[in-house]
Amino acid sequence: MFQYEAPEGARLIQVWINGKEWTVPEGLTLIQAMWYTGHEVIHGIGCLGGVCGACAAVYRMPGNFRLFNALACQTLVKEGMAFSLIASYPTQRAHYDIETLPDPKEGLFELYPESATCRNCNACTEVCPQGIDVRTSVWQAAFGDFKGVAESTMSCVMCGLCVSRCIAEMAPHEIALYARRAYGSRELPFPENLRHRIDAVHSGSFDRDLERLSHLSLEELKQECGVK
Ligand code: SF4
Ligand code: SF4
Ligand code: FES
User: Cβ neighbours of residue 43 under 8 Å, at least 6 residues apart?
Assistant: First the structure.
């Protein structure tokens, strides 16, 4: 089991993890506090850098009825905090090839018919740890404004917290992903730089380097990448 060593001399505080009281040093993230108290956190973490969205958590503070949401790798424990990591929410993920859909705007309602049933409650926006106006993005998608969706949801980390609150039982982040794909594939010109790089890969420009790297030991690879 992974053991987390807390910084020396840190002040100790009381927290509740999954309903049980623990004493942990101040300055830890929620995930570090779980490690410190011996919890085996295998599912629910990935990048530890606020990017992958795997570590959605909910918490309450003493004397406050509000339920807060956070990424557990980006949020520090506070005195009296009660928190739990949220297991991933099951979602209905549509399978499609965005390039071959006859009409992506129509396609949205075929693949995600629930995207037309938003009840405007705004719970998805309130829960989003990235501060995205999720409700508006759902409406933008329903009206075929895929550019608007792409612009408003670019910082989505796919944590799924919006799914946990939607009273229309939709997965706003999957709808936004569809809209971003449709926008990138159908409305934006193909990036020239990317075209050049793909052509270079296909013409074998990197074959020799790849061959050399594939024969390096782990230590040599670390040296190559500047990793100690
Ligand atoms: S839109 Fe949904 S999945 Fe994306 S970051 Fe916000 S709550 Fe998480
Ligand atoms: S939580 Fe669901 S129903 Fe409520 S505003 Fe967001 S998408 Fe619409
Ligand atoms: S572990 Fe990736 S966002 Fe927290």
Answer: 54, 87, 88
